[in-house]
Amino acid sequence: MWQPVLMINGFIVFVLGAMMGIPVLIDLYYTNEPDFLFIQSAIIAMFLGGALFLANFGKITKVSIIQGYLITVVCWLVLPFVCALPLMNNGDITSFSDALFEATSGITATGATILKDIESQPKSVLFWRSLLNGLGGIGIVIFAVALMPFLGIGGMNIFNKENSDTEEKFLPKLRDIAKDIIITYLILNLCCAFLLNWAGMNWFDASTFTMSTLGTGGLTPKNNSIAFFDSPKIESIVAIFMIAGALPITYFILILKKRSLNYITSNTQVNAFIKILIIYISFFSIYLAYSTNISLLKAFRLVGFNFISAITTTGIISSDFTNWGNWCFVVFLLLYFHGGCTGSTTGSIKIFRWQVIKAFFKKNTIKALSPNQVVVMKAGDKIIDDKIVSSVFILVLGFVFATILFTLVLCLLGIDFTTALGAVSACITNSGVGLTANIGPSGNFSQFNDYVKYILSFAMVLGRLEVISFVTILSKLKIK
After folding, report:
1. Are 56 and 16 in contact (CB under 8 A)?
2. If I label 131, which of 25, 41, 185, 302 is the partner at 20 to 30 A Cα–Cα?
3. DSSP code of 84?
4. What SS3 state is found at 336?
5. Of 140, 127, 78, 129, whose CA–CA distance to 103 is shortest?
6. Cα separation of the two ends of the chain
7. Is 379 helix (H, G, I), strand (E, B) or coil?
8. Neighbours of 2 (CB within 10 A)
9. How many Cα atoms within 13 Å fall on the side-chain side of residue 400?
10. Which helix (H) or strand (E) holds 141?
11. Going by C-beta distance under 8 Å and a sequence separation of 6 or more, which residues neighbour residue 68?
């Protein structure tokens, strides 16, 4: 059972080690000296990954459901440790807990940081953080699916665990699906980078912001994030691509393949996501303008960008929203647990699942008034059966229970309730920005002790696995 799990994860570790060469070249370009910590870490990762791969190499004719879960869960548990190797004792990161926290935040596309002075860090570290956001956003397991032809017919089990998209299967082969996703993702990244460079960013900032934006990760090379540039043009571009990152990647592929305006406007999940954004931004822009006496245009700019960042779980912030009023804690908490669309790079629960819950309550409300009426649950034009409803409720309850549990643990470790809830919510939804001043847009997570950092790191991974995958594999292994 473990042979494909170890082989595929060995391959992923090897590829990740090879990618450590990119920050080496970046640092060499800017300082004329390579970052030897990255070189050493690359050698270690490639050796360990290659050895694990070769030791378990063999033709895979079938990957079972349990193996699909195992490959994905083991991958997300192991990768943060590999990603932390070049960060240890690099720049201001001096402890293993800090390196692991920063690496986990990067690869899970969370965006939380322990760095107090981001801009003083080596270019290699800054680029690596954003590169991890890009890889984590798309799901590095998908790279393995696309690049390993020996996965065989069972590969769909891995793809389904890594990519929760509910769109129609538009290509006959799994590798073609994965390759189309990667190509589309790369094209979106190139478009974003060129536009940001055109808007005034240098190429380093444009590339790092792009990976953090499309990967909805939020780790940027600036202390003040996007506010450093104070540019409506740059904020508009980043906002547009944060929304793009929150839409199903297959949505863009199908638009190109179908070439139909009707498809663009008929996707119910995308439409619901856009409507939610418009309602939230419109209402709270007016409220912020009224409550703080700033212009409506400025309020719209502030609320629009930061609400988009929150609901897409990106964490690129243009203003310290903790100064807007006490209402922000609750509103941003709600936005964090919305998430983007299924099949996107965002974290959290996601819009389609909220549509399923809405359909369930609508059905039971009608049945309460008319017990004999036959009611079909639908999310847009999709019929929802009881199995989907059950899985959605289990997932949502898993998120809620895990949030309560981690918050309780942090409180037992001496952290006040609001800070604990804000930190856990930011990490488990992969949003990255805390909801109180000390860990919010103007703060960071460096104040916490090692135990809290380990707990929050695990919460990030659990959120990236959408909680239920980890619980499922534990229960399956226990049964075995």
Report:
1. no
2. 302
3. H
4. helix
5. 129
6. 11
7. strand
8. 10
9. 8
10. helix 140-147
11. 154, 157, 158, 160, 161
Lookup: tokens for 185: 């993702």
Residue corresponding to tokens 């694990």: 52
Report the C-alpha gap between 312 and 336 in whole angstroms: 8
Q: Which amino acid is at 127?
A: F
Closest-CA residue to 13 (of 124, 143, 162): 143
What predicted TM-score, i.e. pTM, was given to this entire model? 0.90
21: Cβ contacts below 8 Å, ≥ 6 apart:
38, 39, 42
- What are the C-alpha distances in Å from 122 to residues 35, 86, 125? 9, 12, 5
| Tokens 């409507």 -> residue | 275
CA 141 to chain centre: 14
- What one-letter code names the amino acid at 71? I
Query: Could you tell me which of 461, 395, 398 has the C-alpha nearest to residue 108?
Result: 461
Residue 472: pLDDT over 80: no
Six-digit token pair at 480? 């075995």
Residues in CB range of 82: below 8 A, 6 or more apart: 13, 16, 17, 45, 49
pLDDT digits 0-9 by tens, 383-416: 788 788 888 888 899 899 999 999 999 999 999 9
| Matching residue, tokens 């006490």 | 326
